[in-house]
Write a structure and sequence with these properties.
133 residues, two-stranded antiparallel sheet, 4 helices, 10% strand
């Protein structure tokens, strides 16, 4: 987010974070979650905790992937993609279809990764607790 004022960048990031936490597939993992914007801290309690380090790493990965989705989603689903840029032989050519393809790939990968990480943790916890999925 180069070129943005720090306060605007933080506001946008908090929006992406709130969007991620509000998604049912993410929210249902927590018995409680609170964001303290002043000190930039997240307090959470998972419904099925494992240990502090694993839980923290898991939550970070989930929130980061969710924030990537929240950032890409309006760009991917926008009807106003950046205009095509045609330059001379020394400049690169950027097409809308290539841009859209890259956004689609990024969106789908982040979405798939988020679902996999949540699914895999469920399987792992079931295995550790001796419950068959």
């Amino acid at each position: 987010m180069s070129g943005l004022k720090e306060s605007l960048a933080k506001e946008m990031m908090m929006g992406y974070l709130r969007s991620t936490i509000s998604k049912p597939m993410v929210r249902r993992m927590f018995s409680s979650i609170e964001i303290d914007e002043d000190v930039e801290e997240i307090d959470f309690e998972l419904r099925e905790p494992l240990d502090d380090d694993s839980d923290s790493n898991f939550v970070e990965e989930v929130l980061v992937l969710g924030m990537v989705l929240a950032w890409v989603d309006p760009k991917y689903h926008s009807t106003l993609l950046t205009a095509q840029f045609f330059g001379n032989s020394e400049q690169r050519y950027y097409s809308q279809s290539a841009h859209l393809s890259e956004l689609k790939a990024m969106y789908e990968k982040a979405q798939t990764d988020l679902r996999k990480i949540i699914r895999d943790r469920g399987y792992s916890l079931s295995y550790i607790n001796g419950v068959q999925p």
